[in-house]
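debug: dumping io for the single-chain case to check the tokenizer round-trip. Nothing else runs in this session.
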Amino acid sequence: MVATVEDGTLLSLRPDKDNPASSGFSCQKGIAFADVHNDPDRLTTPMRRTASGEFEPVEWDTAMADIAERVRAIHRMHGSGALGWYFGNPGAFSYSHVLWLLLLSMGFGSRLHLFTAGSQDINSRFVASQLLYGNSATIPVPDIPRTDFLVVIGANPVVSHGSGVTMPRIREHMKAVVKRGGRVLVIDPRKTETAADFEWLGIAPDGDAFLLLSLLQVMFTENLVDRALVAQHARGVAWLEELVRPFTPESTQAQTGVDPGVVRQLARDLAGADHAVVYGRVGTCLGQNGTLTTYLLDVVNLVAGHLGRVGGSMFGSFGIPGERFAMKAVGALLGAVYRRRRSRVGGSPRSSARNLPASWPKKSPRRAGGRSGHCSSARATPCSRCPMATS
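debug: decoded output
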């Protein structure tokens, strides 16, 4: 972003056309940060509630010391299980925030309740990656600049600007696929803004998993799969083939609303393309079968021969020494937490070592007759998130 400043006052923000990462693109929220920065209601100093219920400004050192002492007292009395930390979407885009939160949680202890906004958009992706790759942070992305056939399921990148893809001006990149002779197919119950620009295949709501199962069934039945190649990269290919055998396009038509002939042709097109990729995002993550659908998205890319390949669904890298070893170690730790740790309320697993935010109120102290019940999350601290406004 390029800032226009006059006498120390921020007047406006605009995209930086010379930035190689953004290519001069910015979403409206980024541009609007000038208004946020100058808003008279914006807090620029800590505020402490007084005995009368009003708020008064205090110095940063005073606020930090006060918070630290109260948290320390709770920790001394009840242990780390009485503490909770909730961070939202912005925190995930700050390396320093993630690093220091990790160190802070280690300092609090293993029973700290860590909540995130992930269940509202991406936990299904994390769990699918944990089950497939052994690490919830291993997330493949579509290689749109080099693909010949892009299938979009449950995503609207023209509006979202490519959630999880990090590609400025994604509409232009998608149109470039068509210009070089390729195809872009949008599968969605609604003819979205993205579907209006490209091919559209309507599907019944929550029919995505059934469609993907049928695509796999056709690929195996019609021998469109290089089994030897798939077996080099994955275990359980025979198990998968047996699992999808009953899900013929005819048997799933009631759930998908898609003509069986269309399903068969789509399977052939995906398996026959040199460079193809199936991409899904929030829509596929939040359905009734979100984890299964996300899991199957990657499995379709794998079986069709496009996972981890140019023009397909590819894995990124931080480019740091020892990254592969570190990712395996982190994956093993997160996998152990997922298998063994359950929330006190509801018994739900911990995705990426994090609790579901929906369980937060139930974990809070219950008061009756002026006395606290089971002490859990006696203090929960939201960070880079406003739960009251964003649910």
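debug: round-trip ok. The two ends are 29 Å apart (CA to CA).
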